[in-house]
Design brief:
Elements: E1 2-8, H1 13-23, E2 30-37, H2 43-50, E3 55-57, H3 66-80, E4 84-87, H4 96-102, E5 106-110, H5 125-134, E6 138-145, E7 155-162, H6 169-193
Parallel strand pairs: 1-2, 1-4, 2-3, 4-5
Antiparallel strand pairs: 5-6, 6-7
Bound molecules: glycinamide ribonucleotide.
């Protein structure tokens, strides 16, 4: 059984896609043991609660220094003892200590075809705004392992999505989620759970 910790910051639609895929048997032999949010009011926490998953908030505001916050995040992860950490719309840059502890066991979903529209400052809606500004005709989503860089880790899966005339950042974001993110994130986790993608031991 693959024990998963999911880290979130917002609405949690990717978390929901993983919960649904586990319930529907599209992800085999895996369970989410803890959801960690850096925002106390993230709707993702409610989604976890509804699914009977332990949900904890670790908010920067509750810690005097960034270092104390980083240590609290690491503790929240370690307590869950996950085999796999999934960053599903987690918008905090993780400390080198957390990354080195979970290197090879941590994946992230990013809403573009890396190496386009990624790196520092590219997150959430901003990614789609920039894609539309540049006038690309195809965008998509990427699941990758997390390393010390920002969106630089080894790519696991990508899926392309067409940009349509008249798209706004919001319509494009929704299409990328529906057609790419909510598919490739559960699919990657299923492949990991089945041992088709190896985690570093
Ligand atoms: C998703 O589009 C995810 O790819 C993106 O934030 C959104 C979270 O939505 N992540 C990043 O931009 C990371 N750089 P959700 O909370 O509904 O899953």
């Amino acid at each position: 059984m693959l024990n998963i910790a999911v880290m979130v910051s917002g609405g949690g639609t990717n978390l929901q896609a993983v919960i649904d895929a586990i319930e529907a048997g599209r992800i085999h032999d895996a369970r989410i043991t803890r959801v960690i949010s850096n925002k106390k009011d993230a709707y993702a926490l409610e989604r976890a609660g509804k699914a009977g998953i332990e949900a904890v908030a670790v908010s920067r505001a509750d810690y005097g220094t960034r270092d104390e916050f980083d240590k609290a995040l690491l503790r929240a992860l370690d307590e869950a003892a996950p085999d796999l950490v999934v960053l599903a719309g987690f918008l905090v840059v993780l400390s080198p200590e957390i990354i080195s502890r979970y290197r090879g066991h941590m994946i992230n979903i990013h809403p573009s075809l890396i190496p386009s529209f990624c790196g520092e400052g590219y997150y959430g809606l901003k990614v789609h705004e920039e894609a539309l500004k540049r006038g690309v005709k195809v965008t998509g989503a990427t699941v990758h392992f997390v390393d010390e860089g920002c969106d630089t880790g080894p790519i696991i899966m990508q899926k392309a999505v067409e940009v349509e005339p008249g798209d706004t950042p919001e319509t494009l974001q929704r299409r990328v989620m529906e057609q790419a993110e909510w598919k490739i994130l559960p699919e990657t986790i299923d492949r990991i759970a089945r041992g088709l993608i190896k985690l570093e031991s």
